[in-house]
Amino acid sequence: MSDLVTLGETMALLSAPRVGRLRDMKSLCLSAAGSESNVAIGVCRLGCSASWTGRVGADELGQMILTALRAEGVDVSASIVDPSAQTALMFKERRGPNVARVTYYRRGYAGSRLSPDDVNETLISTARMLHVTGITLGLSETARAAAYRAVEIARAASVPVSFDFNYRAALWPPQEAAEQFRSMSSLAGLVFAGEDELAILAPDDLLEGARRLAGDGERAVVVKRGPKGAFSVIDGVVHEEPARNVVAVDPVGAGDAFVAGYIVGTFDGLDTPGRLAMATATGAYAVTVLGDWEGMPSREDLALLSREEGTTIR
């Protein structure tokens, strides 16, 4: 039994070690990256358990991904090694001190072949929460069907469902994404969206859009606002949380860290302000470290955010 179960695509990540154009780099750093597996790592680092289901190729990159997730305590026993497809790739370059650009090679690769048959019913039905994202919905028809199958199992077993919009313009146009975001949100009890993502559904008034999405107390809607903090709408009540003041070095992965913090705050039984405070703290800590998941904090790491600048721990 895992506290959190998630499924989706995890890719091999090749990232530039310094600021500049990718074409000018003489070497790249190899790691793994995927929104759902990032959240799973974040949950594990905060002391809870998590499982990730996905497909990787029967290649060295696929083995690297599984090894990295196991090393972080993520259960990957339900994942599939696909001998007929290669592991997807993601390239990340740093075009400024805190500006990153990513490029994907994913269509037709192993991760996009996730299907309903890959979904583990026992794993989901015994979890404390299921987490899915819009990336899986836009990745392929079979991956979308897998996400809905997972949610169907969770709801039948009274397992809460968490859904993060995680819009990727390279996967699908906003009009198509909007339809799926509404559909999946209607099945979830906890919905996350960035300001720009929520604007796909509510371009004129984000707060009103969040209220409509929340319904009459049917679900909690949490809006990630980056350096402006976050707000949530729960049972018609709006809660706001300012951002933590940190020096950002890599913004990629901050949203996943935020989600992990909020989910663990939920597991901890924190009230809404407490969950938002934990989420903004985990998101803030993540941007201080290079990498998609490497900056996911432990509880001990979070305590460092309250230290004065220039503190040396001896």
Molecular structure report:
The chain has 314 residues and is α/β, with parallel strands linked by helices. The protein has a single domain (4-297), classed as 3-Layer(aba) Sandwich (UDP-N-acetylmuramoyl-L-alanine:D-glutamate ligase), CATH 3.40.1190.20. The protein contains 11 helices and 14 strands. It has helices spanning 35-45, 60-71, 121-125, 134-139, 141-156, 174-185, 195-198, 206-214, 254-267, 272-286, 299-303; strands at 4-7, 11-19, 29-33, 50-53, 55-57, 80-82, 89-96, 99-105, 129-133, 161-164, 190-194, 220-224, 230-234, 237-241. An 8-stranded mixed β-sheet has the order 4-1-9-10-11-12-13-14, sandwiched between helices. A 4-stranded mixed β-sheet has the order 3-2-7-8. A hairpin with a 5-residue loop joins strand 12 and strand 13 (230-234). Helix 1 (35-45) packs across helix 9. The protein is globular, with a radius of gyration of 18 Å. It starts with a strand and ends in an 11-residue tail after the last helix. The model has no long low-confidence stretch (mean pLDDT 93).
Please give the structural blueprint.
Layout: E1 4-7, E2 11-19, E3 29-33, H1 35-45, E4 50-53, E5 55-57, H2 60-71, E6 80-82, E7 89-96, E8 99-105, H3 121-125, E9 129-133, H4 134-139, H5 141-156, E10 161-164, H6 174-185, E11 190-194, H7 195-198, H8 206-214, E12 220-224, E13 230-234, E14 237-241, H9 254-267, H10 272-286, H11 299-303
Helix pairs in contact: 1-9, 9-10
